[in-house]
Amino acid sequence: MNRELREFRRLERLCLEQAALSTLDWARSGLLKVANDCRLAADTIEARSRPPGTFAGAVQALRLALGAMRSSSGHHSGRRH
Predict the structure, then answer these.
(1) How many CB atoms lie within 10 A of CB 68?
(2) 2-53, pLDDT tens digit by residue?
(3) b/e code 28-38 from CB counts within 10 Å (16+ = b)
(4) How far is CA 57 from CA 13, 18, 22, 29, 78, in A?
(5) Is 13 in contact with 31 (CB distance < 8 Å)?
(6) What is the spatial distance between Cα 45 and Cα 50, in angstroms, rounded to a whole number?
(7) Residue 42: which of 77, 1, 9 has the closest Cα?
(8) How far is Cα 67 from Cα 62, in angstroms, rounded to an integer?
């Protein structure tokens, strides 16, 4: 599981770095969305690795729920039709 966690964190950093360098709005937006998805996946892995019943686990679960709500409400492409 640590390997998966490290890989998601690495991909998140890579996407954030590439988004900062991107000159195209659509590419930057896509990279930021992928970075967010990687962060959510890594946070989920971290939350599952904690022992149940801890305060940190409850805080992490709340953070994941709020992050999922935030990403689903702002998860549109920004394209004009």
Answers:
(1) 13
(2) 899 999 999 999 999 999 999 999 999 999 999 999 999 999 998 888 776 6
(3) bbbbbbbbbbb
(4) 24, 31, 36, 31, 35
(5) no
(6) 9
(7) 9
(8) 8
